[in-house]
Amino acid sequence: MKILIVDDDMTVRELLRVILKDYTTFEADDGEKAVRMYQELKPDIVLMDLFMPKMDGIEATRKILEIDPEAVVIGVTAFHSNKGDELMKAGAKEIISKPFTRKWIVEAISRYAKV
C-alpha cells in the first residue's frame, strides 16, 4: 500500500514515516506538491495537514478528489476544532487530531486499507 504524507513540518513527516514503516510512503511539504504527487503516484491513502504554504490541505483535498473521486484523504491537524469541518466538507474521510498516537494512525489506515 502506498501512503502520501502531506505536512509542512518535517518532524511530523518523519514521525509518520516511522509509524508507517511497513508501508511505502511518499512525502510532500505543501498542498501543490501533494496534488502533483497524487497524480503521479496514485497512493491508496493521503494523510493531509491543514495549514501549509502555497496551498492548504482543504484546497489540496478538493483538487485530489477532482482527480480521483475515490481518493482516501485523512486529515491530520492540530486545528480539528476550528477547521476540521471545512476539511471534511472538502472530502476528507476523517480527521485525526495532533498530537496523534501511533494507534490512531494505524487504526485509521486499517479502516481504509484496500484488501
UniProtKB/TrEMBL annotation:
Superkingdom of origin organism: Archaea
Response regulatory domain location, by residue? 2-113
Task: Give the 4-aspartylphosphate positions (modified residues).
Answer: 49
Instruction: Tell me the InterPro entries matching this sequence.
Output: CheY-like_superfamily, Sig_transdc_resp-reg_receiver, ST_Response_Regulator
Pfam families documented for this protein: Response_reg
Keywords per UniProt = Phosphoprotein
Signal peptide residue numbers:
none
Q: Which Gene3D superfamilies match?
A: 3.40.50.2300
Q: What is this protein called?
A: Response regulator
State the organism of origin: Geoglobus acetivorans
